Amino acid sequence: MQIVLNQTQHIIGDFEQIFQDLRLTLTAPTTSEAELQLFPELFLTGYPLQDLVLQKEFIENYLHFFNEFQTWLKDHADLPKNRLILVGGLKYRFDKDELPLYIENVVYECRPGTGLVALYTKCLLPNYDIFDEQKYFHPGKEAAIIEFQSKRFGLLICEDMWFSSTHEMDPVKLLFDKVAKEGPIDGLLNLSASPYFIGKQQKRETRAKEIAQLFQAPFFYVNRVGGEDDILFDGQSFATDGEKVWQAKAFQEDALKVKLPLYKGNSATTYKNSHIENSWESLFQADLATSKEDALPKLNPWDEETCEEVIKALTFGLQEYTSKCGFKSFLVALSGGIDSGLVLALTKMALQPHQKIEAVYMPSKYSSPLSTELAEELCEKLDIPLTHFPIKFLHSAMGQEFTKNYRTPLEGLADENIQSRLRGTILYARSNQTGSMVINTSNKSEIAVGYSTLYGDSVGAISLLGDLYKSQVYDLSHHLHNTRGNLPLGYIERPPSAELRENQEDSQSLPPYERLDAILEGLLSYRLSQKKLHEMGFNKDEVKKVYDLYTKSEYKRSQFCPIIKVKAKSFGFGYRMPITKKS
Length: 583
What we know:
- The protein has 583 residues and is of the alpha/beta class.
- The protein has two domains: 2-277, Carbon-nitrogen hydrolase (Nitrilase/N-carbamoyl-D-aminoacid amidohydrolase), CATH 3.60.110; 303-506, HUPs (Rossmann fold).
- Helices cover 36% and strands 19% of the residues.
- The chain is built from 17 helices and 21 strands.
- It has helices spanning 15-27, 56-74, 171-182, 200-215, 279-283, 304-325, 338-350, 369-382, 392-406, 412-434, 444-449, 470-483, 489-493, 513-524, 530-535, 540-552, 554-557, and strands at 2-7, 35-38, 83-94, 100-111, 115-121, 145-148, 151-157, 187-192, 219-223, 225-228, 231-234, 238-240, 245-247, 254-259, 288-289, 298-299, 329-334, 356-361, 386-388, 437-440, 462-463.
- The strands form five sheets. The chain has a six-stranded mixed beta sheet. It has a six-stranded mixed beta sheet with strand order 6-7-8-9-12-13, covered by helices on one side. A five-stranded parallel beta sheet has the order 19-18-17-20-21, sandwiched between helices.
- Helix 6 (304-325) crosses helix 7, helix 9 crosses helix 10 and helix 14 (513-524) packs across helix 16 (540-552).
- The longest helix is centred in the last third of the chain and has 23 residues, at 412-434.
């Protein structure tokens, strides 16, 4: 028997394309060999659906597609019987007013001559970070085993494979008990829509091998591909016989074909979950490490493999967002600083043949000659058109008008921020003129402590670096310089500065980034309080300063653009915090 893991990429609600792909799969030529085709969780709709799943228009469109496909299946009873196709989809139940009474996330069998047959309902509905499935879905309560060509397979949907103390039931245990009662299975099938973060794939494979060992049967995992606003789905579908792993490609559609293997790993005789990491614990553990050389914990540095993974994720996420929003050109504000330089380099790497990119350099009277030189050098190296648009006279005129009308000079922080807001105005005037998408250049450290100007350098349609601390911006920049040579060393070596006043440097306002980033990671992971960070060796006053900046910047983050998510804990949809609170 051949197992085919179809990691697909569709726009949410693109029922016409989904229907077409299913017809192609069902009518494709077959051999004498039995074939089991798996498609991801909620393949029939896309994921995540959020409140779309409750909207009448969406429900009507989905049911129309569902009924059309049902009819097509019933009219094609002559399709090959040695092919079984399983897809994820929604199952609605309605009240007397035709409003959703409850909704199930299910596995359907596409059965020629019969239609779509629901086989299994997702039991575990995650309700943490970006997930809020308990708001929308009704949980299943039973395990399911299907038979095909004299083989038996256990079914799971995404979260069902994870043990967690946050869940009241354990679907793996339900399936284990069913197998103990009814007899062994030949494989486990998991249909997933599992979002990406750095290190996620290793966690998936480790858990899959644990389950394979428990059932002494191979494990098959199919995952979707795509970027949905700030959330990425990486694919990387895989199969494991307990030892070997067959894996599909990352961040692109693929169909992984595997002959049904026999289990080859170690054997487990009793059900155990005590050794399995709690999913909440494993997801939100602070990414900090200590060494003999350093007294204080630091962020774990990124190696070359991680840097390449992050580059692939960010460029993929940018293209997904761009194509689904209908943009064909990009605009980046270049300052001569490392963040904007890295954003421009990554955007150029993501560029498709039909797309264009331009940069604009908007120096003020405080901008250094080095910033001009670096901006020009980078654009020449990347072959990107650069426009010089000085704001010196605009800034001066604004100061004069402000003094004239308010009878008080524009100075201090107000004078610094007006420069940033003038640049934001110029960016969006150009964006309106050309239809280009402005890409934000802020990093996670700046967003965390509010070190950006609202309606100024915080503007943009999407943030490439919003999930990268400043330390990681340097890691990635060093990697690009060393491996591709497309980021001049001058960007990396110069002290970071906003250049909004004379001789300004970030270190005048913030702790050194290696300490700042470690403190922020501790706070954002939900693991470390101010007290705990102080006990770990961080200066008490410094921790208090960072914490105050972090909590007082909530109103800025609530107005920030979508951030491409590459970490377990990120600002954005998975981070929902009240703005008005005491601390």
